[in-house]
Amino acid sequence: MKVRYHYVTKEDVKYCDLNSTVKQAYDFLKATGFRSIPVLKNNGKTFVGFIYKVHLLEHYVEHEGKDNDPIESLLKNQDAYIFEEDSFFKTFLTIRRLPFLAVLNEQNEFSGIITHSNIMDVLEDSFGMQTGGYLLTVGTKEHKGAIKDLVTIVKNVNIEGLLTLDNGDKYLRRIILNLSGDLTDKELKKIIEKLEDKDFRVASVDRIENKN
C-alpha cells in the first residue's frame, strides 16, 4: 500500500508562502481555523516546514514581534515529510504527535499532506467499516501457524478484513476478523463454536453496518 493512494492533494491543502509576514500567516491561520499549515516556497513547489499559530502568538507576546517580521525563523518540523511511493505504514512511525505530514513526489515537489484522518480511514477499512459485516475479536495463545489455523476454520466464509494485535507478545495474540454480513445467526454461531473448539476464544462480536 503506497502513500499516493491515501493523502490530501495539494489542490485541497491550505498553505502559506515562505515570503509571508507574521501578520499574514497569523491572519490566514485564524481564517482557516487550523493550528498549523505547511509553508512552501518556489511558487508552491518546495516544502520548507510548518507554521504554528501558537508560535506566531509567542512571537507577538513573548518576543515583542512586529507584523511585518518574516516567518522563516518560526518554521518547525522541516523534516516532517514522506514520499508518494513510500509504504503507507511508514506514516505510523513518522507522524506520531505531528498534525500531518507533507507528501513529496519523485522530484521532491510538494504534492499534498497526509493527516491522522487519512490514517483512520485506512484503519477503518482494515476493520471492515466500509463494507460492514461481523467483527470478531478472537484471542489465542501465541503459537506458530495461529493465523493459518484461524483462516482454515473460516475458509468457507468471505473474509472482509483481518488485523492482528499484540504482535510480539509471547503468550497472547488478539485477531480482529471481519466476516461477511450475509451470514445468518445460525452460521455465525457455528463458526464461533468451531473457533472455540480449536482453542480460539471469541471475546466479542460486533455487527458493523455497511457505510456504502
TrEMBL record:
<dbReference type="Pfam" id="PF00571">
    <property type="entry name" value="CBS"/>
</dbReference>
<protein>
    <recommendedName>
        <fullName>CBS domain-containing protein</fullName>
    </recommendedName>
</protein>
<dbReference type="InterPro" id="IPR017036">
    <property type="entry name" value="Lmo0553-like"/>
</dbReference>
<dbReference type="InterPro" id="IPR046342">
    <property type="entry name" value="CBS_dom_sf"/>
</dbReference>
<feature type="domain" description="CBS">
    <location>
        <begin position="8"/>
        <end position="68"/>
    </location>
</feature>
<keyword id="KW-0129">CBS domain</keyword>
<dbReference type="InterPro" id="IPR000644">
    <property type="entry name" value="CBS_dom"/>
</dbReference>
